[in-house]
Specification:
Helices cover 27% and strands 27% of the residues. An eight-stranded mixed sheet has the order 11-12-14-13-15-18-16-17, with helices on both faces. Strand 6 and strand 7 form a beta hairpin. The longest helix is centred in the C-terminal third of the chain and has 20 residues. Bound molecules: zinc ion.
Length: 370
């Protein structure tokens, strides 16, 4: 990183390629946003140094840059060296997505050499995002909220504003008298865009009005728990110097305090917390009883979600055995049951991720009301 900072200005002056093709992360939701962390090397090659706010390699899975190819009508070849600064999880960082807004993200496999991942791909004229997980930023989230707000079947409420002025919204179905009350949360960890697409799938069901399972529960959705983290290109924390929202019970943090107050008001029977880890071959389930999770996996399998292994139960490899943060608080105060799910992107399309979200909620509701 230090090398990049020292060298970048000189390389820029020497390289005229910038005018024809450039790469930037200097936008809302970009990573790296620091101009000096992307170094043009000539001939369409760039060295990129992604950042993480606390250098926790276990969460350093964020790359959100934009290629701008001007002055050509043909596709152009771009070569990337992504300097991750960590060897241990490099195998999880050798596949990137390319796309614009919408559903058309394509996967590109690269190779690893130490802590550097190499990619070579053709980009069309104009702007193309290159990302480790399909882009879903604060503006995409606000569009989702508007989509809910325009419908009579959804109640929208702004819960609070973050320290940086971004909005935390709650969407709820309008069948107020129904139990169980189920709270669905996503983007506690900013890099994990899978949860956002799962939420899009759930909102599709709510707006469609024909999904029967939604008649049997009162559903509360918090689509983006860490919008400052998402916008600042962070990996794990709610904001620079903020909290890990999936684990924190620090009520001195205004965001944590607001979320805890919301849980006190709703008193949910169940919290479904959506995450996307980077382990390609396995889905993960945590915190419910092993037998219940086994049944969940069986039911999901019947809906066609058996394309990869599921890890569940008490294997204490990545997580505490008991819930943490908001979920732990809800469990102590109100006996709330909860489950964290980890749905990796690898091999999944946006459409499949949306279906996975709606089928997960459907399965939880059906199992709770049975
Ligand atoms: Zn997570």
């Amino acid at each position: 990183m230090k090398w990049a900072r020292r060298q970048a200005p000189y390389l820029r002056i020497e390289n005229p390629i910038k005018s024809a093709m450039d790469i930037t992360g200097a936008f809302q939701g970009g990573n790296p946003q620091d101009l000096q962390s992307i170094v043009p090397l000539g001939n369409g090659s760039f060295a990129i140094y992604p950042f993480s706010e606390d250098e926790d390699a276990c969460y350093k899975f964020r790359l959100d840059v934009k290629v701008i190819a001007n002055g050509t009508e043909a596709s152009r070849r771009v070569k990337l060296q992504i300097h991750w600064g960590d060897v241990r999880y490099i195998a999880y960082r050798t596949r990137i997505f390319a796309g614009r807004n919408g559903d058309d993200w394509t996967c590109h496999d690269g190779t690893a050499d130490g802590d550097v991942a190499h990619f070579e791909l053709d980009v069309p004229p104009g702007e193309t995002y290159l990302t480790l997980n399909p882009k879903y930023d604060y503006d995409d989230y606000l569009r989702l909220i508007r989509r809910g707000g325009d419908s009579r079947s959804v109640a929208t409420e702004m819960v609070t504003q973050t320290l940086e002025g971004r909005e935390i919204w709650l969407l709820a179905t309008r069948n107020q008298e129904r139990v169980p009350k189920i709270m669905v949360t996503a983007r506690a960890h900013p890099y994990e865009t899978g949860g956002s697409y799962c939420i899009e799938g759930i909102l599709d069901d709510i707006l469609d009005g024909r999904a029967e399972y939604l008649q049997s529960a009162h559903v509360f959705v918090l689509p983006m728990l860490s919008p400052d983290g998402v916008s600042n290109g962070l990996c794990k924390l709610s904001r620079t110097g903020g909290e890990d929202i999936a684990r924190s019970e620090n009520r001195n943090d205004p965001l944590v305090a607001s979320l805890f107050s919301l849980v006190e008001r709703i008193q949910p029977h169940f919290i479904l917390d959506l995450h996307n880890w980077m382990i390609p071959s396995r889905n993960g389930l945590y915190y419910e009883k092993p037998r219940w999770m086994r049944q969940f996996v069986e039911n999901m399998g019947r809906r066609g979600h058996n394309d990869r292994e599921w890890t569940y139960g008490t294997r204490k490899k990545f997580f505490a055995e008991s819930p943490t943060g908001l979920k732990a608080f809800a469990k102590r105060q109100f006996g709330t049951r909860c489950m964290t799910v980890e749905y990796p992107w690898f091999g999944r399309s946006v459409v499949q991720m949306k279906r996975l979200g709606s089928d997960s909620l459907r399965t939880v509701v059906e199992m709770l009301v049975k």
